[in-house]
Amino acid sequence: MASSVISSSPFVCKSPAKKDLGVSSFRKASQISIHGCQRKSISRKIVSVMAPQRSSSTSGSVKTGMTMTEKILAKAAEKSQVVPGDNIWVNVDVLMTHDVCGPGAFGIFKREFGDNAKVVLNLAINILSLLAFSLFVIVTSTLKVWDSEKIVVIPDHYIFTSDKRANRNVDIMREHCREQNIKYFYDITDLGDFRANPDYKGVCHVALAQEGHCRPGEVLLGTDSHTCTAGAFGQFATGIGNTDAGFVLGTGKILLKVPPTMRFILDGEMPSYLQAKDLILQIIGEISVAGATYKTMEFSGTTIESLTMEERMTLCNMVVEAGGKNGVIPPDATTFNYVENRTSVPFQPVYSDANARYNHIFVADYRFDVSKLEPVVAKPHSPDNRALARECKDVKIDRVYIGSCTGGKTEDFMAAAKLFHAAGKQVKVPTFLVPATQKVWMDVYALPVPGAGGKTCAQIFEEAGCDTPTSPSCGACLGGPADTYARLNEPQVCVSTTNRNFPGRMGHKEGQIYLASPYTAAASALTGHVTDPREFLQ
Amino acid sequence: MAAASLRSVNPTLPRTLPSPTRSPPFQSPFLRFAPTSTSFNLKPLVTPPSPFVTRSAAASPQERKTFHGLCYVVGDNIDTDQIIPAEFLTLVPSNPEEYQKLGSHALVGLPASYKDRFVEPGETKTKYSIIIGGENFGCGSSREHAPVCLGAAGAKAVVAQSYARIFFRNSVATGEIYPLDSEVRVCDECSTGDVATVELREGDSVLINHTTGKEYKLKAIGDAGPVIDAGGIFAYARKAGMIPSAAA
């Protein structure tokens, strides 16, 4: 029987249930390291729930209830019921890859599933071009991906560079997509002017959402750890490696272990100076970089319901930084409105069986009173090295970076512009702006910022002395080739709206990266120190 | 299908409509099993010892289950950027020449506080067979280049307190390296350069540090073992008859 403990003390060290939920051993019991006990914290209530054992009910007579993630996976595995720990074969709805992992994934697909038809074809072409042309017409490669309309190929990582291998990788993807007739390939050929490429989008996770590939209830896999971003749409989305992706390319299925779900209930009105980035940094600081390993992080509560889709994406984006397998948010009118404006593919939303009777289906419960939270940063060199922004005000910085799937979306730039406009000052350090996609870039130049008398983000950024917004891509979030714009090539201190700050993440091994919200990043740019955005916002 | 087309034409239809009829789930020509089977348990393919050759290195059955060599010790939260910095991700692991190059860059992202390099400059192979780690080894990116570069460099196993899930999964899927769980903080008791043996046995596995004379129990690798033994998820699936063998 589930029991809840509500503590009235300012801080409670939460010990998530460590009971073995019958997890069969693809991997033995995960380890949860608790750093939180030593951390200072804002006063809030924490509810601790002990989850009793749930056994795999093959008889089906006793329904134990399922979380959202369990329901999505059960449906994708064509089963009526699953429990955490089950290894199941799951049908994949969408597979995404990009320029870094795509060549490897397709390479493995061809090596493992291919016969020699293509090799013979190439030989013929070399020997007799005329005869080969007729051969080409008659003999087509027999190797086909499982569904050429369920694969989305999005070059985004190393695009605007002269690195020959990086450029070659985009060419390789073009060849694969042509050969396999991949419907969604957001190609780029003119590296000198991104606007000359009508198909090119930019950062994969933002493009997936903007192009209508994210839908409630579906299973989306990507060869990138931040694929978990799409969980904001109420779907199962997680990152996989090249080999797994090669397998999916051929079969459309993947073997997954059903994760248990940790529930994070966020209630209260969002303060005007707080953003989703602050919420997720708060949570990761609470449970540590391994706090959600092999688990689902499910976010709900009145605060979550008030968030826009882009803010929800920011929240789910960094689930992987806590070790999480996937993040998920129950879909609602906000979700449906966004999705239905971008796709006409039908979808079926699912929801956790969540009332008091089903509390046991969650392995941990965390509650936050958001109205009491303050802007936070993650100090070098770990995403869980949480500190209040205001307590870091003596940290002198060398630069600010606003971009990436985490903090480079339209609303992220709007927020930064809003703060710059409210402050009416110039930045004190180089401030790099990297819109995530073409659409974001266009919004930065076209949309008026509310309360700024009709000015666009771009105008406000220029007046504040920021760098000109650059070509959309992943940019320097992960360093990249040596000539990547805004790469950290010296041991400097950078405040960034990105997602990881391990040593060397943005380039230089001794670079110091403070992860922050767009508000905090903008405020810090204005002072040249890590700065709480309340200095400039009411 | 009628419900599906209705929905696509008229997006304002309430969501209480019965679930739109989907086309039957894709039946892959590559997978040979009933999709409605109950939970699939990965069973060991053969009882040891067995004569099949692994992909990672041609070895006798004894060598495959026992690794002997020098240790390289790292700390907690060794993330994928430290294992293989992002600038090297342009190397495609399925390209044999670039696979070797990846090995030469293994663990080059570690900070300068690590005095011993995992791979000496100019070399492509490491002299260390066993990597000893702390908590959350392999956290960060989903890049498969991480376990691949360690295997390409010649490491055989990682012994760590815990792993990040994507790294663990990628190690198994590629068959490049054995990710083994220790029960104590082995990284605090071993030093780089210690001579050690890892023995993978049916029940308990063990790490023996010959330099210190200490032995450590390791958690059984379980269902992941046979997959790595076979050389990764594809080789395993073929041996298990789940997908057809590669054409001759």
Automatic annotation (TrEMBL), chain A:
Transmembrane parts of this sequence: 119-139
Domain of life, per lineage: Eukaryota
Keyword terms: 4Fe-4S, Iron, Iron-sulfur, Lyase, Membrane, Metal-binding, Transmembrane, Transmembrane helix
Positions of the Aconitase/3-isopropylmalate dehydratase large subunit alpha/beta/alpha domain: 87-387, 390-528
Annotated SUPFAM superfamilies: Aconitase iron-sulfur domain
Keyword Oxidoreductase applies: no
InterPro entries from the UniProt entry: Acnase/IPM_dHydase_lsu_aba_1/3 (IPR015931), Acoase/IPM_deHydtase_lsu_aba (IPR001030), Aconitase_4Fe-4S_dom (IPR036008), IPM_dehydratase_rel_enz (IPR050067), IPMI_cat (IPR033941)
PANTHER family per record: 3-ISOPROPYLMALATE DEHYDRATASE, HOMOACONITASE, MITOCHONDRIAL-RELATED
NCBIfam families associated with the record: PRK00402.1
Descriptive protein name: Aconitase/3-isopropylmalate dehydratase large subunit alpha/beta/alpha domain-containing protein
UniProt organism field: Brassica napus (Rape)
